[in-house]
Amino acid sequence: MPYTAPWPPADVLRSPRGLALAVSLLLGVAAAVNLFSAAVSGYAYSLMKRVTADPAAVAEGTLDRSDVLTGIAGALQSLVLTATAVVFIIWFHRVRVNGEIMRPDAFSQTRGWAIGGWFIPIGNLFLPYRTAKETWTASTQFAPDGSFRPVSPAPVTAWWVTWVSSLVLDRVSGYMYKRADTPEALRDASAVAMVGCVATAAAAVLAVLFVRKLTAMQNRKAGQGPNAAL
């Protein structure tokens, strides 16, 4: 349902609460799946370490089990990532539009970049972050006297830095897996993959904090108006 708030009639504020709840739940599932994947990578690392030390000590079928677990973890990651990305981007666009209604002068890009920025190679490493920071600024209430009152963007920055780090680790581990032709190389690739999965899980948790905080900021500003109450 549209908000009732003192904003220009050119656009209508729409509550991001439902989407925020949905994306928070999906991010929680994503964090759990990536921790499972980290455990699988840790198992593969331990297994390759044993193979390197003494191949005869590894029971028959153990390598197949590791491959099956890796395949399951990868499939779950892909499924959850797709679902989470779709809902997150819808939420992201919603709060970006709300932010423009609340404060049009806070943005350097059109609202379409809240979606398109995610799909531009290289650009997707910084364009969504710019949109997130500008939306954060636009959603911040002014002080009761109308002066600007900054709110620390630490939740935005922490989420984004962790997310980009997880992407880099994922690319590195994928490259290492493709080139791995020895147990030692597979061991090293598994180690990087394990760290990458933990980083992705951390990014998901930080994303939940970002989503909840920004949604609360917009709800407050929509209910109270541009200036904070005394």
TrEMBL record:
Keywords: Membrane, Transmembrane, Transmembrane helix
InterPro entries documented for this protein: DUF4328
Domain of life of the source: Bacteria
Protein name (record): DUF4328 domain-containing protein
Transmembrane segments: 20-47, 68-92, 112-129, 189-211
UniProt KW Kinase keyword: no
Pfam family, one: DUF4328
Residue ranges annotated for the DUF4328 domain, each copy included: 56-215
